[in-house]
Amino acid sequence: MSGLYSCYEDYPEASWLINFPIAHRGFHSGDGECPENSIKAFESSVQKKFSIELDIHLLTDGKLAVFHDNNLKRMTGIDKEISKCDSSMIQKLRLSGSDNQIPLLEDVLDVVNGKVPLLIELKNMRKVGEPEKALFDIMKNYNGNYAVQSFNPYSLHWFRDNAPNVVRGQLMGYCRGENLAYNIRFLLKNFLFNKSSRFNFINYDIRWLPSLVIKRLKVKGIPVIGWTARSIPEYQRAGKWCDNVVFEGFDPSWPVDKECLIFQEKPVDLNSPFMIHEVPQPTH
Q1: Helix (H, G, I), strand (E, B) or coil at 172
Q2: How many degrees, rounded to 5, is the angle at CA 188 between CA 16 and CA 42?
Q3: Distance (Å, rounded) from C-alpha 239 to C-alpha 208?
Q4: How far apart are the C-alpha atoms of 268 and 186, rounded to whole Å?
Q5: 234-242: long-range contacts at Cβ-Cβ below 8 A with a sequence spacing of 24 or more?
Q6: Rounded to the nearest 10 degrees, what angle do helices 182-190 and 153-162 cross at?
Q7: 111 phi/psi in degrees, rounded to 5
Q8: End-to-end CA distance of the chain
Q9: DSSP H or E segment with residue 239
Q10: Could you report the per-residue pLDDT of 237-255, keeping only the tens digit for each?
Q11: Buried b / exposed e along 178-208 (16+ C-beta atoms within 10 A)
């Protein structure tokens, strides 16, 4: 545990990380009515005063697209890696058969304009430097609260060296579907960040809860966010261990009843073999 704790670095006051509900990819509907990572979903988040979790990819022309997947197919029907596209290409596409475009980060900033906090996941499994610089160049004059998070501890290390005042979060989880290099998977699974990450908070896969390492981090006062609750029971359960929980598919600001459901993906099976047998143990 001492090895993991030594990777933590305190940061200026950022109570907004835990005081606002965090809408996963914006407050979306799970379909074409209000697609994930769309301007419409971000406008809905602002209206509800929810923090926004979003994902960014570096495009070939140096722009940053707000999109989760490495491939465009699930959300647009086009089988192409987003990293091989430029901004003119991606803005011709539409999300989930709707009229909503894939937004650029600068367009999202114009909409949000500091009204709610942003939790920005940097998708970079390539060489560190260019995507991180592109993000910081856009954000350095932004007048609003934001944090950068990544599965890649070397991306966070770049921010510590080059933009130390940016709040940094280490994403940790099962990582299925994430295009992670073997060495990064090994670091994440075994909590071996050395001094690469230097995180200010942890964003932790709720499928791994309860976790001894999370209990110890909280005792040390290290902020812990959980991702991603897709039902009310998951949200309530994760809240027992986390300071805040990223949510999707319901409105946590409403009374807890059936009317607060927006859409419902298959919830996590807490009795599944993964939950019982595949929870990693921290390195002491």
Answers
A1: strand
A2: 35
A3: 13
A4: 24
A5: 234/206, 234/267, 234/268, 237/206, 237/209, 237/270, 238/206, 238/209, 240/210, 241/209, 241/210, 241/211, 241/214, 241/215, 242/204, 242/206, 242/209, 242/214
A6: 90
A7: -75, -50
A8: 4
A9: none
A10: 999 999 999 999 999 987 6
A11: bbeeeebeebbbebbbeebbbbbbbbbbbbb
Rounded CA-CA distance 65/277 in Å is: 37
CB-based contact 7:193 (threshold 8 Å): yes
Cα distance between residue 133 and residue 158, in whole Å: 9
Reported for 76-83, long-range contacts at CB under 8 A and 24+ positions apart, including other chains, are 76/102, 82/57, 83/57, 83/58, 83/59, 83/126
Q: Are 55 and 25 in contact (CB under 8 A)?
A: yes
Distances from the Cα of 159 to the Cαs of 128, 140, 182, 215, in angstroms?
10, 12, 22, 27
Residue 210 identity (one-letter amino acid): P
**What DSSP designation does 62 have?**
S
* Residue with token string 């039902």: 231
Tens-digit pLDDT profile for residues 9-30: 666 567 889 999 999 999 999 9
Q: Which amino acid is at 247?
A: F
Q: How far is CA 7 from CA 20, 245, 259, in A?
A: 26, 22, 42
CB 169 within 8 A of CB 136: no
Residue type, 141: N
Q: What is the pLDDT of residues 26-77, one digit of tens each?
A: 999 998 899 999 999 999 999 999 999 999 999 999 999 999 999 999 999 9
- The answer to pTM > 0.70 is yes
Identify the bridge partners of residue 146 per DSSP, sorted by sequence position. 118
